[in-house]
Amino acid sequence: MEHIRTTKVEQVKLLDRFSTSNKSLTGTLYLTATHLLFIDSSRRETWILHHHIAAVEKLPLTTSGCPLVIQCKNFRIVHFVVPRERDCHDVYNSLLQLSRTAKYEELYAFSYNPKQNESEQVKGWQLIDLAEEYKRMGVPNDYWQLSDANRDYKICETYPRDLYVPRTASKPIIVGSSKFRSKGRFPVLSYYHKDKKAAICRCSQPLSGFSARCLEDEHMLQAISKANPSNRYMYVMDTRPKLNAMANRAAGKGYENEDNYSNIRFQFVGIENIHVMRSSLQKLLEVSGTKGLSVNDFLSGLESSGWLRHIKAVLDAAVFLVKAIAVESASVLVHCSDGWDRTSQVCSLGALLLDSYYRTIKGFMVLIEKDWISFGHKFSDRCCQLDGDPKEISPVFTQFLESVWNLMEQFPQAFEYNEAFLLQIHEHVHSCQFGNFLGNCQKEREELKLKEKTYSLWPFLLDEQKKYQNPLYSPDFSPELTLLEPNTVSFNFKFWRNMYHQFDRSMHPRQSVYDLIMNMSEQNKQLEKDIKELEAKIKQKNGQPDAVILKEHQQSAHPAPVALKTPPCFKKEQPLIPVNDAVRTIEGSNTADNRYSEFMEEFSKAEPAVVSLEYGVARMTC
Amino acid sequence: MEFAELIKTPRADNAVLHGPRCPAVRGTLCLTGHHLIFSSRRKEGGEELWLLHANIDCVEKRFVGSLGTIVIKCKDLRIIQLDIPGMEECLNIASSIEALSTLDSITLMYPFFYRPMFEVVEDGWRSYLPEQEFELLSSVTDEWRLSCANKDFSVCPTYPPVVIIPKCIDDEALRKVAVFRYGGRFPVLSYYHKKNGMVMMRSSQPLTGTNGRRCKEDEKLINATLRPGKRGYIIDTRSLNVAQQARAKGGGFEQEVYYPQWRRIHKCIERFNILQESLIKLVEACNDQSHNMDRWLSKLEASNWLTHIKEILTAACLAAQCIDREGASVLVHGSDGTDSTLQVTSLAQIILDPRCRTIRGFEALVVREWLQAGHPFQLRCAQSAYSNTKQKWEAPVFLLFLDCVWQILRQFPCSFEFNEQFLIMLFEHAYASQFGTFLGNNENERSKLKLTQKTMSLWSWVNRSEELARFKNPLFEANSLVIWPSVAPQSLQLWEGVFLRWNRPSKFLDEAQEEVLNIINYNRELQAKVNALRRQLAELETDDRMQENLCGTTPTFCHILIGFPKRQCPINCHFQFASVLLPAEGQRN
Q: Which of A108, A338, A387, A421 could form a disulfide with A417 if both were Cys (CB 3.0 to 4.6 A apart)?
């Protein structure tokens, strides 16, 4: 609170991000402890959570005031013009302070109160139970068991307490192997394929340097191999480009020497590191944020950003993994450097392709809890929850969501959830409103007592799951084959407009078939109910006429629309892709929303000279 | 000439067909005068391929030992491969296909031989006559007239016999204007905007030449379309530079001094070989699945296809904006007035006029703005993306138009009565068809070929309810408003239904599409049922009421009747509307 220097600024202009003629809305800017709020003259509200702010920039003073540009982690960009520089300065400084949190305890999640009682809070955290999940996979079994080696985080701080390892891997082997792996992240089970008896295992890179070897680690891999009765060999996937892995050898790290490990098939898959991904996204956003962008600049920018190339690399790696398991019944060990970024991407996508459970709403939550949260993907560092090292920021999780979106585009009926679900999760990974994604690993989360002090996101998403249900989902989609085999030819990968331009309404289709179908299938359920009621009523009428029933009927046939109830946790958020969009936009939309109109706006201003006309044309064509 | 002369080997057994995305099939290949027919040997469920020779864009052959392979690339962008045992047979067949697919004479084309297997309910040749269009117009304004000055095609060889022009211009003046415009294409009415009485006209470039010739009748004609004190816009689809260069060849543009009430705007839309090359590059990029991401994106960019889409859409939006927002009349022309001009005028109408978004309205638009307006289909669609003979006149002008319509359709998926399949069907028939509709380059040629007597119209076939069912958009809901599409590069997409159609499995997408239909149909069914039950219940209530009335109770049943159309739907009010409309539609079907 002490950071807020000014709570209200009037006559602030909100500029249209893509307009070249400085079209704007005028309104009042409010600063609260958690949000920045802009209310324009037509009472439309724009809420921005402080934690969502990635960068605030004050541009040089102009005649109309002092421009303030705010970039958000959910790819919203707002451009304000504050009339007085002093106010702008105050807002700027306040936001700088508010958006950079030094301590976890200051994050929104610790003050956020959704009016749940304690038992609801506890129940919420118990919604996802990973022990249950391993049981679902068929673990423990004859080959795999729960190990208590990491019960007290003694072997690996960034792993969860409960780890599943081959039965033949004794404690000394585990300890020895963990000493030979970067950050102690030794090979453990991530997913078990019941039918093929093959496993996806994960770890970090070995500390092999140029020649070091470790017998326990070799035994560990052998134990994984042997835990799979259907195949004698196993794959080791190093998800890094070969060059990076080789460079790591100089630092005493590196990759497995095939000569030292019996029966392994070693494979590089070439996903770039977090720094490359960060700058790739940076470039992508620069391109897509350009005013008056031409098609060729867009496509060449898309190409040079490399973003889609990276997404394809991630999915290609997952496809490789899945083939090893589904076709060869071979177990696969996946690692990168530390085993918490690329490894999480590949393991989770692999499991998603193999197991239809992860394509349900609940299953997807489980998948994220398992491969991302519990195995120590550094959400805090990657999403910059606290003011920290900017070099640790990277859109690794965003890439995972984008890969899933690409799969949804190819298999529209295979997923129970829809795009809005992915966008909402992305929103909350960065919002710090719920405890799930806070911190970098389970140990840290326990120390923060998140389960007592914060709330879990998942029950809130389940409460409003109607919004996230895919109306086209068919649970028995290709029943003989729960396996998804995506086509990763380049032309299948598209720019994810709804993610990167989520808040730029003018770019989206004005009518959405998807929303209509969603509403329609929701309505169908209601109609089915109505029919039953009506039939019952008619039956009754035919039996014994009674006027009272009629009144009841009128009430019960029109229940309050469920979707209209605003769930408490999202009250202050802007709708993502609003469910009701189709309604508001059924009309023709506005020319003013579009770029080609800029020219006309100027044109219509009292009798322009021919010169300005040519100028306008030039601008329109560029 | 007998086709038999061209067919050296009419039949080859044991041939193997490799189609796109399906396993190889062994079977028999037959050549007829107009078709390549392949039928697999299996008796039950055997597949047959009937390929129109006119659809073949290019034929390639290669040999491995005595096994010959013919690769056939079609104008609809499909590529099929035939393995034919025996070198001689293979060579014969290849050369026959080549000869049959490049027949010189139009009258040898299939439409002149095609006999329909269906009963013609409505003769498509008479479906969209200019006189009918004019009738619609004269119900709202009397400032225009039909002129028959061109009835023998002497004033303008590429215009239809009757055109709509301002009432105050007599045929004599018209002839003078025709001399002043390239190819005699004087300004004619293209579209009348009922909302504000503004109009869109189209023509070809004026022949001002280097010495700035003028034509008083021309000035009078286009000024006649302006309201007193109002101004208009001339949208020139060439860049200023190109327009200026055209003067050296006798062409040019309207000079400000002589047309003071008009503002000229140049919007550059590419033409001819640039577009053709763009299509060739795009299809090449789409057909190579081995491209890595960078290569694919750079090839997509290098094709410039989406750039052309954006240019055309932007120009069309501008024209629409001048008319609807500025309340100004518009004259559109490029140089010939047969290509980019028509793209702009027809797309502007899609944006402005709800009628053009219905099936019949769109057909009328194609007839009016493309066929009668003299877009040279025969020249432009002679070859498609696989042509290796570099001829000068081929260009995917019409395909670009259809692509632009698809882009708008994608952004307003409920505002069109037709679906994507309808647009794809038009693309196919423009390049190769059993119907005579797209034959010839203009009405003059068509009347000489006596197409209306000798061939069947595409519309006679499409407008039968059996066919229409495939082309109807189940989500269509008449939207009477102007629809402004976004032209941002992020909003434009590659038309996968055409360009990736043969290159990627579509099973899952097709199934999803089917599911969409199921949901919609199920919804209609349920709506109808609920309404029927409500009515039944209401009747029962009425009976009760009558009995009760006898006893003196207040009637309340009217609540139900009022309540029923306003049925609360769980999500939004949009469906309150739909729920009233849908059952009615269902009944119509």
A: A421
CA distance B531 to B578: 13
Higher pLDDT, A583 or B183: B183
Q: Is A329 left (phi over 0), alpha (psi -120 to 50) or beta?
A: left
Give yes or no for a cis peptide into B111 (omega within 30° of 0): no
Best of A490, A537, A549 to disrupt the B interface (most B CBs within 10 Å) is: A490
Catalytic residue among A201, A336, A347, A383: A336
**Residues of chain B above pLDDT 70, percent:** 91
Gap from B212 CA to chain A (nearest CA, Å): 20
How many other CB atoms are found less than 10 A from the CB of residue A439? 24
Question: B388: which 2 tokens?
Answer: 């290796």
CB A483 within 8 A of CB A322: yes
CA-based nearest residue in chain B for residue A494: B493
What ipTM did this prediction achieve? 0.89
The tens digit of pLDDT for each residue in A497-556 reads 999 999 998 888 888 889 999 999 999 999 999 999 999 988 888 875 544 444 444 433
CB A19 within 8 A of CB A42: no
The owner of tokens 């994507």 is B420
What part of A 529-558 touches B (C-beta under 8 Å)? 530-531, 534-535, 537-538, 541-542, 545, 547, 550-551, 553-554, 557-558
Three-state SS at B69:
strand
Q: Which of B257, B403, B430, B238 shows the shortest CA–CA distance to B336? A: B238
What are the start-end ranges of the E strands in A239-299? 264-268
Q: Of chain A residues 457-496, which have a CB less than 8 A from chain B?
A: 471-472, 474, 487, 489-495
CB contact under 8 A, B570 and A563: yes
Region of A571 (left: φ > 0; alpha: ψ -120 to 50; beta: rest) is alpha
Most B CBs within 10 A among A353, A506, A516, A521, hence the mutation to make, goes to: A516
pLDDT over 50 at B271, yes or no: yes
Spatial separation of the C-alpha atoms in residues B474 and B525, rounded to whole Å: 14
Token pair in block for residue A524: 């169908």
Name the strands in the sheet holding A24-31, side by side, starting at the edge strand that comes first in the sequence: A45-49, A35-40, A24-31, A8-15, A77-82, A66-72, A53-58
Q: Count of residues for chain B? A: 589
Task: For A570-589, write each residue's pLDDT tens digit.
Answer: 433 343 333 333 333 333 44
Q: According to the annotation, is A125 in a ligand binding site?
A: no
Question: Which of A600-604, B222-226, B317-321, B334-338 shows the lowest mean pLDDT across its residues?
Answer: A600-604
A72 is in an annotated binding site: no
Helices A513-543 and B507-551: angle between axes, nearest 10 degrees: 30
Location of structure tokens 């989902």 = A473
Q: For residues B84-107, give the mean pLDDT.
A: 91
Contact criterion met (CB < 8 Å) for A520 and B537: no
Does residue B558 carry a pLDDT above 70? no
- Interchain CB distance below 8 Å, B490 and A298: yes
Asked if residue B204 has pLDDT above 80, the reply is yes
Write the pLDDT tens digit of every residue in B434-491: 999 999 999 999 999 999 999 999 999 999 999 999 999 999 999 999 999 999 999 9
Q: Which residue has the higher pLDDT, A561 or B28?
A: B28
Is the CB of B512 less than 8 angstroms away from the CB of A306? no
A445: annotated binding-site residue? no
Neighboring chain B residues of A297 at a CB cutoff of 8 Å: 489
The whole-angstrom separation of Cα B276 and Cα B291 is: 22
For the question of residue A432 being annotated catalytic, the response is: no
Question: Is A127 within 8 Å of A458 (Cβ atoms)?
Answer: yes
Residues of chain A with pLDDT under 50: 480, 546-593, 595, 597-622
A 112-171 residues with CB < 8 A to B = none
